[in-house]
Each structure stands twice: as C-alpha cells, then as structure tokens.
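fold-stage: in
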Amino acid sequence: MTRRIMAVIVVLAVTVVVAGCSAASTSSAPSAAAAASVAVPASSEPTSAPSASEAAPPASGEVPSAEPSVALPSFVLPNDDKGLEALLPAKLCGKTATRVSYSGERFKKYPDATLTKTVAQLGKTVDDVAMAISTLMSSSGTCHSLAGVFQVKGADPGAFRDYFIAQAKKEDQTIFTQGNVAGHDVYIGVKAGDPTKTYAYFKGDALFFVVATDDAAAAPLLEQMP
C-alpha cells in the first residue's frame, strides 16, 4: 500500500469532514488529505432545515427581503466502528479531533480499483475492510496532522507489511526507513516534494498510521495509539 492507496483510505472520511466544514464556512482539513487524488462524495444524504424566512413571518411593517434564502445542508458523520475510533487520538495539535469510521459495506458504495486490488493481494475483499480516522473539522492552517487505522480483517500481518513497503517504492517513489518514535517501531515514509511524512506500523491485521510534518509532531499522536 502506498500513499496513493492511503489517500484513498483517508479521503473517504476526510471528504465528509471537508463537506461539513464547507457547509459551515470553516477552514479546510489538513493538507495531507487535500493531496489525495481520488474524490469521493460525502456519504451522508443532506437534509434541509427551514430557512430563517420560513421559520418566522416578517414583523409588522417589515418589507420581506427579495433575496432567496438558502438552507445549508447538514451532514451526519459515519461512526461504523466505535472500537477502531477509540484507538485513535482524541486531540490533534491540542484541539479536539473528529473521529469517524467506515465499514466495508460503506467502502463498497465508493469503489476504487487501487483499494480493491490491494485487499485482493492479501486474499481479501472490500467486505473485510474497516477504517477509522482522527482529523480536525477545521484548522488554523498550522496543524497538518491526522491519524488513522486501516484494518483488513484476517490478513496475514507479514504479507500486509511486505506489500505495503514494496508498493510504496514501486508506485509513487515513497521511501520507507525504519525508526522508533514515541516507543513505536515505525516505518517512516518520505516522498520528494511532500512536506509531510507518513509514520506507519502494523499490529495484527491492522495498519496504524500518522501523517505529520516531523517526528516531534508525530510523537504525541503515536503516544496515544496502541
């Protein structure tokens, strides 16, 4: 699995967050997610709330506005696997994070050939996939971190790791070296021109990862992960 594949995983959750942020006129999600090359529509159906003009009639003598009122859509963020969410940091850059999760059933609604190929190489299908991510609904622009866990239920840990590392170099020139950050033995992925690094480690049939600018930014997140 490469950053390209990881972007597919991340964008499924982050796109929903970005949609919610746009509706609320907040700032964008971390730049690592914005770089993802696959666009996935928000999974939740928008629901319309009554506009201010519909909610109450104009006061006596008041001239109604000629401008049409627009009701902003609301979004329900997915929480398919609370257990996975609980494994991720509750805070990012000192701010309360939003944790979302997806089941394989939800992944199937937005099929991606790269993701399908990845799980097939592990002898599994999208039905075996579960994912959770911790990110910020809004950011001041100084926080470029996020954390996530991608589980392929029943996958062989060694095969999962080997495929991840091999494809990283082959597909998008991301080079992984081994290191230790916050007590975790991690694979640190660096790609030329990318200001962030990927910190990945494997535990059973799950890949845990943090995207951050450097070890100092990644450490507080990794400390909160199993």
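fold-stage: in (second)
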Amino acid sequence: MPLSEHGDYENPRKSPYTVERYESGWEMLYMRKLEIDKTVKKWTKNHGIVIEYITEAGNKRGYKPDFLVEKIDGQKEIHEVKGGQFLRNPDTIRKHERAKLWCKQRGMNFIIISKN
C-alpha cells in the first residue's frame, strides 16, 4: 500500500532544483532510488510537461507525468509511479497510452513504476 504523505525532498544531487515536491511516500522512495541509480544522470518532477488526453467521458484533460529522467547515455524517459490497483482504470489507460505516443514522437521512453 502506498504511503500517502506529501512533502519536500531537499537538496537532491541529480535534480537542477534544491527542492523536489513528492505527492506520495512511493514518489519519495523513488526519488531516493533515482539519486543512487548509476544509470541516471538527472531527474526532476518540475519538468512542466503536460500531455493532453481525452477521458472516457470525452473530456479533454492535461496529464502531468511524475518524473522526467535523463540517463547517463543521454536517453530521456518519463517515469510514472502508479499503484497497481489504478492500472486498469480506463482514464489511467488513456493517459498512459497518450504518454507512450508523446514519448515515441520525441524518441523517449515511457516507464510505469508499479507495485500491486
């Protein structure tokens, strides 16, 4: 079960910012993982990326992915931290499909980080 706290991750080494805000305990733990991952050059949640998608009800929405990650080899990726219980939600599926296409058009990867 994800931790529900919100907070500030202060002084990350691989972020261009002195503070990165997390929306869940899982995000905070993932930030720590990104910090020690030797394949990660830099990461941020403050990326400003908003990907438009259409909800199941037909409404236009903007989806802000969790992390923009740049690997040591220069590859850029969008990483989304999502609880397994949400992966079958129709709107989550729509967001992720749109994000995959958005990334593909830019030569990027879309990665879902999930625990059931």
